[in-house]
Specification:
The chain is α+β, with helices and mostly antiparallel strands. It has three helices and six strands; from the N terminus they run ββββββααα. The protein starts with 11 loop residues before the first strand and ends in a 7-residue tail after the last helix.
């Protein structure tokens, strides 16, 4: 008999149509095999509420990435593309960032 595979991942979805954008995520936080929260906010407004961002992954990693991304946004005066590229560069060069917990489906 085939073993049923459990999907254990976070979903963040963003859709843009014309001049409207919506971003949503699940609110589930797990610890081991159990769900410990159903209402986590994984999508946040950053940079004076002008930038909408969502991160999937462990809660601690997401808080870390939100903080680092907002710092880059401030450093580059809200330039989302530049802030994302610089965060990516940090990801490749920072040992702690490179070893954030990764999930695979």
């Amino acid at each position: 008999m085939a073993k049923k595979r459990l999907v254990r991942s976070t979903t963040v979805l963003c859709v843009r149509r014309a001049d409207k954008v919506v971003m949503v995520s699940d609110g589930q936080v797990t610890l081991g095999e159990g769900v410990i929260k159903h209402t986590a906010k994984k999508v946040r407004r950053l940079f004076n509420e002008k930038v909408l961002a969502g991160f999937a992954g462990s809660t601690a990693d997401a808080f870390n990435l939100f903080g680092r991304f907002e710092s880059k946004l401030e450093q580059y005066n809200g330039n989302i593309g530049r802030a994302a590229v610089e965060l990516g560069k940090d990801w490749r060069t920072d040992k702690i960032l490179r070893h954030l917990k990764r999930y695979s489906s």
